[in-house]
Sequence to fold (268 residues):
Amino acid sequence: MAGCCGLFHTASPFFAGGTNQSSANSQGEEYTQENLLRPAIDGTLNVLEAALHAGVEHSVVTASTACVYFDFGARGVGHCYTEADWSDKQAMYDNAAWYGLSKTLAEEAAFEFAAQNQMSLSTIQPPLILGEMLNPVLNTSSRVLLDLMKGAKPLIPNECKAMVDVKDVAAAHLLAFQHRSQGRHVCIGACPHWAEVAGILRRIAPGCAVPTAINPELPPTSLGAPAPERTEYSCNKLESLGLVFTDLESTVRETVESLVRLGFDSPQ
Fold:
């Protein structure tokens, strides 16, 4: 890092349940506490220590809304999530929510390290990230949309889901760095019901097998407002830096175009 004025730390193990198939260098790791917590925490601290020794002026770490609203519905309907909210670590541990816990502990460790060493630090909190894919390996986020597109489940989940365009997440990192905007930055572009997303898919990919009926059963709540309600949030901090979020339909369209281009829409 010698000679660098900024650091962008974006890497962390991200897969939910089962085995890790989310990147080109994944090795089928099991979804366990050991495989998610230590790599996330140690990886973050290692790169921040390197930045400190290199004299980097400002660091930006990709956190997650999993650090903000993983509270299993405890805050209820209508709560507006902001940078002041933190996820419930004990509840995540009790429910083996290792990804959310890994991101939360890593973000906490980053701020503790920065405070101890007088480092200038930003963190960005995106939810499900969609949009154009550059990597030919199917990532965890895009798989969610692909499963809906291919009708992996016969019914549309009866819940809302916060999501954001990958280009907006990249822009958020740059803005936080350029403005040396310290602290946390919630980065949510929209929080539609899955039925709205399904409707967009039917418009832009009329041949896809997306279901039409909504599941009458409500799923258990882990992130944000209890289903089927929309999670309320504020992105005022990022918007005040100049971020303008991409509209949902454009994000879904670019995700689908990438999935088609890379051949993931083919029948398995």
